[in-house]
Amino acid sequence: MNCLNFSGGPGILPEAVLAETQRAISMVPEAGLSILGISHRSDWFAAVVAEAEQNIRALLKLPESHAVLFLQGGASLQFSMIPMLLLRGSGKTAEYLRTGYWSAKAIPEAALEGKVRVVWDGEAGGFRRLPEPGELSCSADAAYLHYVSNETVEGTQFHAIPGIDGVPRVCDMSSDFLSRPFDPDRFDLIYAHAQKNLGPAGVTVVVVRRDLLDRAPAELPALLDYRRHVEAHSVYNTPPVFAIYVTMLVTRWLLNEIGGLENMASINRQKAENLYQAIDASDGFYQGWAAPGNRSLMNVVFRLKSAEQEAAFLQRATAAGFSGLAGHRSLGGIRASIYNAMTPQAVTLLCSFMEDFARSGRGV
Ligand SMILES: *Cc1c(COP(=O)(O)O)cnc(C)c1O
């Protein structure tokens, strides 16, 4: 059975991209070789990297002030590379919004490099809500402000950009990059690994303002120095050729099939509305985790009344062909991840399943 993939990550990819990837594993016609055996020094691969970058530039309307990089080490390595670049030896303090599982993981890594101040901490409230702009007292001379635009585990998402313009703004967009348009000029460094919304595991996209790189400390290991990667056009050492290729196909799909990020965002809004509607109309049978104003359009997290009911829900859902609905191991409950590639039709099927399950669960 071909399951519908609601996993938090690695997540669903578009059917058309998977079909093309399948052909490329046999043979990339222009190269006469399998994608798994093409040299990263070939002209063909240089063109793949260039197209992936161009597509991301076109989708974001990204100015030349920013470089686009394809790196390894996942989002987790960015937790370290960012403070190595912007905090180490600066004498300043880095500011972090602690809004969930992933932003919390970034903080101790930064603390290894210098002083860190947590500007806002949502843990006491179970990370169910995000700060309002008025609740934040960010400092105008911070080294940078770091936040996570979409907390993948708790299912919260910023719908406005926090922080002070003028202070370097650094954002982990791993689970919502290219799901909606935003003004790239307001960001100094954005990172997103591929495996949630963008492609297969193995590559992390970094969009960084070039003039930020001038401050890099001299003694950084080459692989941890963004400047080396800019100079080498993301091919400093052997890159994940396959992951970059598939990510390029996804950006091509976003441009040509979806028609850009405005269209993608409106499809994503519709999908999320349908699913939250199924939760809200269930008379408390399903309970959303995130505060309504902070609900994520990518990860819809909810609970049932008991662990037994959640187990029964997951069992029936799996049998019906819905895969990956178990909540993150740190939180439990249910999480439906509805990334870009999840079709509205599949979300409608899940909504119907939820209505049926609630009806039988109430014994009516
Ligand atoms: C999954 C996730 C991470 C961790 O990424 P790795 O690539 O596994 O290091 C970091 N940030 C966010 C927002 C995530 O969703």
Please, could you describe this protein's structure?
- The chain is α/β, with parallel strands linked by helices.
- It folds into 2 domains: 15-258, Type I PLP-dependent aspartate aminotransferase-like (Major domain) (Aspartate Aminotransferase, domain 2); 259-361, Aspartate Aminotransferase, domain 1 (Alpha-Beta Complex), CATH 3.90.1150.10.
- 35% of the residues lie in helices and 16% in strands.
- It contains 9 helices and 14 strands.
- The chain has a 7-stranded mixed beta sheet, with helices on both faces.
- Helix 2 packs across helix 6 (241-258), helix 3 (74-86) crosses helix 4 and helix 7 packs parallel to helix 9 (344-361).
- The protein starts with a strand and ends with a helix.
- Bound molecules: pyridoxal-5'-phosphate (PLP).
- Pyridoxal-5'-phosphate is lined by residues 9, 74-76, 102, 148, 152, 172, 174-175, 193, 196.
